[in-house]
Amino acid sequence: MLAPVAALLALLSGCAQSTSTGESTVHGGEASLALPDLSQVTVLGGMSGRTLLGLGLIVCVMGLAMGVATYLQMRKLEVHTSMREVSELIYSTCKAYLSQQGKFLVVLWAFIAAVIVVYYKVLVGFGWGRVAVVIAFSLIGMAGSYSVAWFGIRVNTLANSRVAFASLRGKPLPLHRMPLKAGMSIGMVLISLELLMMLIILMFLPREIAGACFIGFAIGESLGASALRIAGGIFTKIADIGSDLMKIVFKIKEDDARNPGVIADCTGDNAGDSVGPSADGFETYGVTGVALVTFVLLGVHDPAVQASLLVWIFVVRAVMIVASAASYQLNDLWTARRYRDADHMDFERPLSNLVWLTSAACIVATFLTTWFVLADTAAADQWWRLALIVSFGTLAGALIPELVKAFTSTSSKHVREVVKSSRQGGPSLNILSGLVAGNFSAYWLGIAIVSLMGGSYLISEQGLGDLMIAPAVFSFGLVAFGFLGMGPVTIAVDSYGPVTDNAQSVYELSVIEDIEHIDDELEREYGFAPQWERGKLMLEENDGAGNTFKATAKPVLIGTAVVGATTMIFSIIMGLTGGLTDGIQNLSLLHPPFLLGLITGGAIIFWFTGASIQAVTTGAHRAVEFIRTTIKLDGVTKASEADSRKVVEICTQYAQQGMLTMFLGVFFATLAFAFVEPYFFIGYLISIATFGLYQAIFMANAGGAWDNAKKIVETDLHAKGTALHDATIVGDTVGDPYKDTSSVALNPVIKFTTLFGLLAVDLAVSLTDQGRGTLVVSLAAVFFVISAYFVHRSFYGMRIQTSLEGDDEPALLDEPAPDQPTTDVPTDDVPATEVPSPSLAADDLPAAEQDSERVAEKVSTSTKASTKASTKAPAKASGKASPRKASTAKAPSKVAEEASTR
């Protein structure tokens, strides 16, 4: 890593020295922009704009207070010691992971800070004070992404054990309210903290340095989100695949406490589904705001209109926080009344109600606030158009989740099709059906996004041109702004997933059912008789709802990134064309560099997709290798903490290695293409946004379909341990890196590339204007070579070493594990399709040659352990034996009946 960094700094320093004797023509881009005087804005009733923004600060503080209060309440909820110990172990591994990531971020930040110093101080000629401001706010932005990620895992790891324990009461309502409350606290803290930081810049710092503050802040949070999102996605899927494959190899149950990969899987649920989305949402909200601020300062010439629009944007943001909180409270009251005494509950329905209620409330609030703020300003005639454009985005925030559910929900016809295909065709047709779902979803979501953007464009043509240039671009930015208007709720329903997923794991890992006299203890200490089988079934059903709504947030965030990127690209175009007055003809397919840029962007997207999956594949191979040779299935009830932590270390190692390689590949590609030719770079940015949008939607929803197809087999068909279940597990392991690694990582990559490209292309153009075109071309070549090195390394440095490369043939699992007795369901209802065990041995393991014998021995002992466990149940309290027996007796006819109708 140090060699390319040194090369970059040396080359940039050389450029700086060559221009130091003359006056710099580099203007510093967005960092040179100054804010208008916001005190000149007056709204209805004579209230000043700054007073309104001050009220926004109060809203932010209240949002933060709500998050802290929820955290304190969550700690006080009742939970059994066995479950609390598991959740605290998960939290401790999450802390270790996040601490490692923090150290890693500091190294990356030091690299970016060095580039900022060379660019702004040496080339642009800023004073040290302004350079320090950019660097300081880049650190603040990165710290913001990191802090909300930390808060998210703390709240989620408190909630998971409380949800697991609440399931024993047999009532579904607490299982819905707890994870949603935890998610809402994360959403409120995330959005409130982001808005608070931006309001501080807007209100309390000198107007002349506000542009530098905003650009530094955006770079920092984008850096933090990119690293945490990419690494988190790799980590979680290494752990998930490593844990899931053990179910096939050893015929053990889901989240078996003897499997040392399960703790890593739980840690990964938080690293990938909590840390990543929290940092990503924080960055998305901030970068979209910075893009809108930049457009207003560049595209609107009247300072009075600039001030009015800036006040309006941030007041609407604050009001939407209030609308989201109020909608959550109303929905919670309705849900509590509706399901207070219910024994059954559709866990997805209250979540859908919340999304639609929040969307409607935010739209109403947008119109009222826009009228109130703009009615007495120079933009008074346009208030309803601006409100309507924002509402298109807010509507998208509710419409897109509904479209996603059509392809990923457990009630979806596409997901049911995956199960039907798996029944007759095994893993191959399972995978093909999932690919169909993903492709169809990309069509429908793409059409929806284009329709809403098209509607905003038509509205923008009805008079916004009187206030600004390129009103359509501003309208696209407002659509992205509307996407995020209901941000607290979007984050809440997304965070619902990792809590429900972890709750199911905590239940199994606690082995609470095997504790001596546990029924008497629960009745004596907590005042209820546990409903074991009912509780486990509800946890699985709730996990299905969590899977669905985790999937709904992904297209919202990627859609925001793409639509928001349009606004940021506009600022580059403004600088290149002198305010759209010169060189417009270069933004055409008739300009070859622009066309070549459009083609190049797709190459980067497809490389990045492959590289991220390769990192997961290699890491999962190593994790499986370790788990298979250390797992103990006889004589123990839990895997050792040391083995579990070792799996976490393996996941962290490969996540960081993969993330660093891909990040540097993207970073130097951005520099290289920005230096090739400015309009080539614009085409490139448009291309990665377009290709990235459809690639991300396709992969996210295909993965969601595979995930919930497995859930149907487990909860509806009660077919765990069968060939059908094995087929859906294979599909799920394919979908894991699709939905939680590659697709979600494209979002911060698009934003980071666009944002950092603002600086890079400005530098390249300025050097060319100074007559140093040859140097610029040389730099482009050097940066491209460095990028190509990391692209090459992302495969050849990460690939799995096998016997095909000349090593001795490692021991393989040549035969599938023998059939294992199960009390869950007979296998006569499913095809006798055998799912062969994968070749999972590795070259660098000292005892690899003895692996086959060890695995065979463990499979044998697994069967014995399973038999021992099943004979132990009658000795336990009678309260648990009866439900198990009933469930077993029901399975044969029930599965046959349901399977024939699926």
UniProtKB/TrEMBL annotation:
Cofactor: Mg(2+)
Transmembrane portions of the chain: 52-74, 104-122, 128-153, 182-203, 209-228, 282-301, 307-330, 351-374, 386-408, 429-455, 467-486, 556-574, 594-613, 654-675, 681-702, 749-767, 773-791
EC number: 7.1.3.1
Catalytic activity as recorded in UniProt: diphosphate + H2O + H(+)(in) = 2 phosphate + 2 H(+)(out)
Signal peptide boundaries: 1-18
Swiss-Prot/TrEMBL site (Determinant of potassium independence) positions: 550
Primary location class: membrane
Region of interest called Disordered, as start-end residue ranges on this chain: 808-902
A Gene Ontology term for the protein's cellular component: endomembrane system
Pfam families in UniProt: H_PPase
Low complexity composition-biased segments: 820-836, 858-886
GO molecular function terms noted in the UniProt entry: diphosphate hydrolysis-driven proton transmembrane transporter activity; inorganic diphosphate phosphatase activity; magnesium ion binding
Similarity field: Belongs to the H(+)-translocating pyrophosphatase (TC 3.A.10) family. K(+)-insensitive subfamily.
Known role: Proton pump that utilizes the energy of pyrophosphate hydrolysis as the driving force for proton movement across the membrane. Generates a proton motive force.
Protein's name according to its UniProt entry: K(+)-insensitive pyrophosphate-energized proton pump
Organism name: Cellulomonas gelida
Name of the gene encoding the protein in the UniProt record: hppA
